[in-house]
Amino acid sequence: MFKNEDYPRSSVEKEGWQLTFCDDFDSPLLDDMYWFPAYRSGRKEYFKRIGKPGRWQNHNAYYEIENSVLKLKITPDLPPRKNPEDWCVSCICTSDHRFGKDTSEYQLLEKFAQEYGRFEARCRCASASGGILNAFWLHHTDPTDQEYTPEGEMRKDCGRVLEIDIFETIASEITPENSYTHFNVHYAKNAHFSPQLPIDLSRHFHEIAVEWDPDKIVWYVNGEETARYNGETPSGKMFILLALFQYSGWIGEIDPAMEYPKEFEIDYVRVYKRK
Question: Which of 21, 57, 147, 173 could staple 271 via S-S, CB 3.0–4.6 A?
Fold first, then answer.
């Protein structure tokens, strides 16, 4: 049963699972053995090379670690941008890339990636009237096999399953009584879920997890199964991306009177493989 209070830290040991990745954010600095503090910097570098303007003024993470909790942050000044209401993202991820002479050649900068398993985070989300998104995603390490092409064009109905959204939480959909969260598999039919949960994701810490297998993906919130997709799932290794976005679009419009700071807080990230 869901309770509108902090969900306790779960045991690291899980029957039937082998731990393969764990960060409790016990250091005051982000562990560079695990993380790149930037949002898809390989794509940003390629955009510069081909002269494509980017929407995001800044791709680098602005963060603090306090009491063993990582806080991905947005303030009026950071990440750096001309105006507080300009688009920005504070992001960390476990893999990146650099293209060679063209997109047929690339170098993977992989710190962690895995095919199949359980991926979980205990976290607290930012809330706002609009324009803020909390995100925990899995992407293919291959930069030519992601939802966006290397040139930044979104693929539509491409016939392949490319991305797992462990969750996306729109800040304006969080209230003291309940919160919506969005679970997705791009691009798969009948794999988009938006459950309304009787908890405040911005006031308390909750654990959100996904179990990814070759023929199904199951989402859990606080240990309870919340959504299930049966069918084709991505194949090949995927990396972790955690981000706090500020932009206008399907998540609502940026409020010019936004109160800052906005913080997406992560207590731990863990990954397992089935034994």
Answer: 21
User: What percentage of the chain has pLDDT greater than the value 70?
Assistant: 97
The pTM of this model reads 0.96
Rounded-to-integer distance, Cα 71 and Cα 90, Å = 10
C-alpha distances (whole Å) from 202 to each of 71, 78, 134, 181, 197 are: 13, 21, 10, 12, 12
Top CATH class, 17-274 = mainly beta
Paired tokens of 208: 């959100």
> Is 112:240 a contact under the CB 8 Å cutoff?
yes
Q: Residues 6 or more apart from 101 whose CB is under 8 A from it?
A: none
Q: Please give the pLDDT value at position 57.
A: 62
Domain-by-domain residue ranges, the chain? 17-274
